[in-house]
Write a structure and sequence with these properties.
Elements (H helix, E strand, L loop, with lengths): L15 H14 L10 H14 L6 E5 L3 E7 L8 E6 L8 H8 L9 E4 L2 E5 L1 H21 L8 E6 L20 H8 L5 E5 L9 E2 L1 E10 L3 E2 L16 H17 L10 E9 L7 E2 L2 E10 L5 H16 L8 E10 L2 E2 L5 H13 L16 H6 L3 E5 L4 E3 L2 E8 H20 L6
Parallel strand pairs: 3-6, 3-7, 7-16
Antiparallel strand pairs: 1-2, 2-6, 4-5, 5-18, 8-15, 9-13, 9-14, 10-12, 11-13, 17-18
Length: about 425
Amino acid sequence: MSGAPRPMTAPGHTNPPRVADLLGAIGVLTDGPTPRGHERSTAAALAEWARNRWPDLYFSVDEIGSAGGNLVCSTAAPSPDDLLIYSHLDTSLTGIGVQDHGVTGSWDDAEAGFRVCDNNVSAFGLGVARGPAAAALVGFASAAASLPQTTHRSLRLVLAGGGTHENSIPDPPGPESLYCGLETHLDQYPLPGAAVVAKAGPRGILWDEPGAGYLRIRVSGRRGAVLMRDRADPPGGLPTHVGGICAAVETWREQWRSSALPIGQSGREAGIGAIRTGSTRKPDLLPSYVDLYVYVVMLPGDSIVDIAEDLRRSLLNAFHDSPLARCDVSVDGSTPQNAGITAPESEVVQMARAAWSRRNEEGLPVLSRWTGSTDGALLRSRGIDTIRTGPTSVTDDRNPEWDVISVAELLRFTHIYSEIGADWAAGVGRGR
């Protein structure tokens, strides 16, 4: 993979040292691919860079599995009074052409490195995590380095591997079991008192987020041959009816989304993201099944098991008087992360509000029906008050696999993360 130019400064900014830190961290994060389960080399390189930049802080890598890992740092021994500043190292697309081809349509690896142009920084995977992760790292280090020797509470940074959603029932099964770096960390160390999730998203602060999971729909008939398609079961063969199956799923989606009011800041969503059937090597044969993979975003109280059964019944009803009536239909759920809510009056929410107000002239936007789920769901499931905030990103017009984030926005959130951390350590507003 060839690297793009990596300037260490950006014009027009009044805080060049912190901008240089941001771009330095982004340079390490974008130097190569970080697919889920293979983040350790990036974590090690970032730890070395951070130790050189902030020698008084101890950055280390917790190894997970054969090649995974978390970058961690604490201002004191981890304790239940910590504020966790969290983001992740892996990206939704891996950056490896042979693995991403089904989504991108290209066999080429993503270009490494980043570019700065007109006060915007662009890179592969910048929006999903790399930009916010850099801001979280620099914000944490800035707060930690400025803390007095005696503070009320400590700060903890985790840039985790295994932080993107991934279906746990692919077909065929993958060679490695999935892992979640955040869950590994929470199992290994004391749970923190509160958490800040640094990830691109809506403009504002989320103190509750929806949950998420995957469904696999399998519609089964009988295998056959294309030359005998008129006598196939179902008639024409299953591939002929994929459009009808998709239409039935879309009908269910509309009914399911509208059957519940939004709760707090969250909303429901669902959609087909993958379809698998037949053999590209032998397309003269009709397959015995078609699989559709659906991503669902859930409200508090939603159950992936109940959603799967509701979808199965809806499909059976839709197929009752159709050529698919004799087909078997099954719906399996996987990888659920249940929705959770942090009280708006909780301490970390109040500190985030205050930091936002100091760094933004306009008021805090009101958020509702948000359908993006992160590892914040895992933190809330452990009883940890959690907020999520981060910069917005857009797609690079010149490279659809790259994201663009304003350097000013990254700098703004670096300050926000730093100020929340400093206020937490100092006990500002404690007891509200």
